[in-house]
Design goal:
Layout lengths: L5 E6 L7 E2 L3 E6 L6 E2 L6 E2 H11 L4 E6 L23 H11 L9 H4 L9 E3 L2 E2 L17 H6 L19 H12 L6 E2 L11 E5 L1 H7 L16 H10 L13 H16 L3 H4 L6 H6 L8
Parallel strand pairs: 1-6, 6-10, 9-10
Antiparallel strand pairs: 1-3, 2-5, 3-4, 7-8
Helix pairs in contact: 2-5, 6-8, 7-8
Organism: Erythrobacter mangrovi
Protein name: DUF429 domain-containing protein
Length: 297
């Protein structure tokens, strides 16, 4: 296929504030070599990442972002069943969130999760769960999931509902801030599978860094709980299993950096595999509404 020349993995963050220690970017070149962290003197801001994606990407870059690109839709035929402003597709969802959060700084999403109607669909804390967090006809403790998140479980990882805003494993806040960013990329970058895969140009896909970790052998054949790489030695062992040269360094490494590094290498190793672009369960309707997680096969 030889479609892409570069592979950019972004470990994203939905936390409050201008700069986020949880954001990390790593770039791998299709010609080979180890993935490289894109370092800064200070922590990244979400606006700086947006600027890179709009203006500084190599032309044929595959960008993996660790966030949910949409919310559950298929289970109820709506993102927000019972709310008359519920959008019909993912791009309208991005626009709704960005509009409601227009006055929130730093691409934050606080205005959306406190909106009188939208707030009803989220778990905000242990003791504050919106009355529409669960589906009335199918209540579960974990909340609602997309079809792609059900497929993620086949990769020996355990996703968390994008409607959950609680706990270290939650991705709700990062997904909502990410949707604001995606809304501002609509005229510059394709977002697969919400957009069809174009013949050329940059493409953003949703990633789950734990899938990349599993593919690099983290957790072993049994798929244990471990998905984080906390030392250069562990990271380089994982890169070796992806047929990737080691990165320089020894001792501890923060897991945001290691997530980005191993995921950039993994993207390079699987991007030309047609199966990753045609996962079982992905239909035109799912693509239009919920999107998909790259690598959830």
């Amino acid at each position: 296929m030889d479609r892409f020349t570069h592979f950019l993995a972004i470990d994203w963050s939905g936390a409050k504030g201008e700069r986020q220690k949880g954001i990390a970017l790593s770039l791998a070149d299709a010609s080979g070599g180890p993935p490289v962290l894109i370092d800064r003197d200070t922590a990244w801001s979400r606006e700086e990442v947006l600027h890179i994606l709009r203006h500084e990407l190599p032309p044929d870059t595959l960008v993996g972002m660790d966030l949910g690109i949409a919310l559950p839709f298929a289970d109820a035929g709506a993102f927000f069943p019972g709310w008359d402003e519920s959008p019909d597709n993912a791009k309208e969802l991005w626009a709704l969130i960005d509009r409601i959060c227009a006055d929130d700084p730093y691409l934050e999403s606080g205005s959306f999760v406190t909106h009188p109607e939208a707030a009803r669909y989220f778990r905000h804390s242990r003791d504050h769960v919106g009355d529409r967090f669960h589906l009335p006809n199918a209540p579960t403790r974990e909340g609602r999931f997309r079809i792609a998140e059900q497929a993620q479980r086949n990769r020996n990882v355990r996703p968390v509902s994008n409607f959950n805003l609680v706990g270290a494993a939650q991705v709700g806040k990062s997904s909502l801030t990410g949707m604001r960013l995606l809304n501002r990329l609509r005229d510059r970058v394709s977002v697969w599978p919400i957009d069809p895969l174009p013949e050329g140009g940059p493409v953003v896909v949703e990633i789950y860094t734990s899938i990349a970790a599993r593919a690099s052998g983290v957790g072993g054949e049994t798929g244990g709980a471990k998905t984080k790489l906390r030392s250069y030695e562990e990271l380089n062992a994982a890169l070796d299993r992806l047929n990737t040269p080691p990165v320089a360094g020894a001792g501890p490494i923060d897991d945001h950096s290691s997530d980005a590094l191993v995921t950039a290498a993994w993207l390079r190793s699987v991007a030309e595999d047609p199966a990753h672009w045609n996962p079982e369960g992905l239909t035109a309707e799912i693509a239009r509404t919920e999107g998909w997680t790259f690598g959830a096969l």
